[in-house]
Amino acid sequence: xxxxxxxxxxxxADIAAVEQANTAFYEAMERGDFEELSGLWLPGEDLTxxxxxxxxxxxxxxxxxxxxxxxxMANTEYIQFFLTDVRVAMTGDTALVTCxxxxxxxxxxxxxxxxxxxxxxxxxxxxxxxRTPDGWKLWSHHGSPVLTETGEEEDEETPx
Length: 160
Known about the structure:
Blueprint: H1 4-31, H2 34-40, E1 50-52, E2 59-60, H3 62-74, E3 78-91, E4 94-108, E5 115-132, E6 135-145
Parallel strand pairs: 1-6
Antiparallel strand pairs: 1-2, 3-4, 4-5, 5-6
Region (Disordered): 141-160
InterPro entries: NTF2-like_dom_sf, SnoaL-like
Organism: Streptomyces gelaticus
């Protein structure tokens, strides 16, 4: 019979493992390590995984999702994620991670000799993980851009 301390320790270990799997996902993207990134998604052709990149339609199926990451990696010279507001919720063998991706990225310069200008972007993301015999694997990723203020405020009428 397990006591409350055992259950608390198991839950804390699960949360730590999910946080590590989430971090591994972003680190694989930063390194452009497609093989590692592929291994982080649920395996098998019969499993339906999904992904929504900011501004993209829903991608369904492991092959389609992984092709999208290959395309992103092939066209991104540099990308770095600074994660904030990371929260983990769990129920059974499913974990939900929400976070803000503070992204810094750049492509090749026009002359092809150096890194082009760096661009920052904020994206709120939801990553859903499933427990497998090989650890926590991504089932779904959804990223949505955060609209930022442009600094152009509407002229307010002031009393004369």
